[in-house]
Amino acid sequence: MEKKSHQCRMMDRHQTQKKPRVLCLHGFRTSGEILNKLVSRWPQSVTQKLDLVFLDAKFPAQGKSDVEAIFDPPYFEWFQANQDFSEYMNFEECLAYVEDFMVENGPFDGLLGFSQGAILAAALPGMQAQGIALGKVKNKIKFLILISGAKFGGNKFGAPKLASNAFSKPIDIPSIHFIGETDFMKQESTELGEAFLDPVVIHHPRGHTVPRLG
Known about the structure:
214 residues; globular; 29% helix; two-stranded antiparallel ribbon; Rossmann fold; 18% strand; single chain; six-stranded parallel beta sheet; 6 helices
């Protein structure tokens, strides 16, 4: 068999580089490895089209994880809040941590988030557009994949001060929203989708989890 020409090899590398690079933000008191395991159940026809990067949150879990019986530790959380989600702690530190990772390991085209990671990811495009977050990140976030997410400032969750205007305008980037029919955050996920222009909403029969796609 003939060796590939230099031009063909260059084209192959170019095609590989053209995969959208996606930063994946896990759920509350889980980890990047756990989210990776859940997303890896998706069909290869989906995952092979994306360059998925899974990041652990900055803060170790400050309490019991709901997934302890299923997945091994360590577990992490992006930020903390009081019981009624009216006050937030370490949110600014979380933003700086994500920003530094995106600068050092990017460029990233989009974000994928589950649960607390989806709440964070959903707020970032609006905050970036306002110059409040990701100021050192040259690339604008081009799309979002949000699983069991919610909106800061919505029915259930108050907004950290820095994110108070994240949804002051409809978010005008492509977005996919996975909403579970038995998810305890179904209403919040639906409300989040309404904050975007032309969202693609995919309903699945399960609860608060990353659904299988096939």
